[in-house]
Design goal:
single chain, about 170 residues, alpha+beta, Immunoglobulin-like, 6-stranded antiparallel beta sheet, 4-stranded antiparallel beta sheet, 3 helices, 10 strands, about 45% strand
Amino acid sequence: MRKFVVAFLLTVLVVGVAVVRANDGHQIPPGNGLSPQDRLGAQGEHHAVGRDLGLIDGRDLVIDDIVVGTDRIAVRYHATGIQMIQFQDLGNDPVIAQEGPTLITAIADGQSLSRIEGSDSTRGGNNAVSGEIVFRWQGGAVHHLQVSIVRIMGDVHATWTSNFDF
């Protein structure tokens, strides 16, 4: 029971921080003259991929940018049709309580990457989400990157996998 309470409180804290960040402008700005590297917090080689991963059950995802730096890989995306989990329901699912409502993984040149940070925010109440995720990377130039979206904002049907060759 104690583990569940700790996991629930941690989830509430993470969601609270995400809400505060979304409301105070710390999300990735949509343009305003900043380079993608500055917006994503990763200096390195910028790839403006703009890859639409396709419509699945009314949900669509586009990978906008990937920045490969010396110590991190950053991915920026936007999605539509996302059926977001309600805030009061976050603690009802122990997996979401432990891992968070959005889960994105990546493998670069055969190495599983560790997430450093990430955030997502809603746009205009139309089930549209934009977000970014930053992974730790120490391997230099990347030749192959696989990005797997397991869920976005608790929507377990928002799943895609895509491969990028650089």
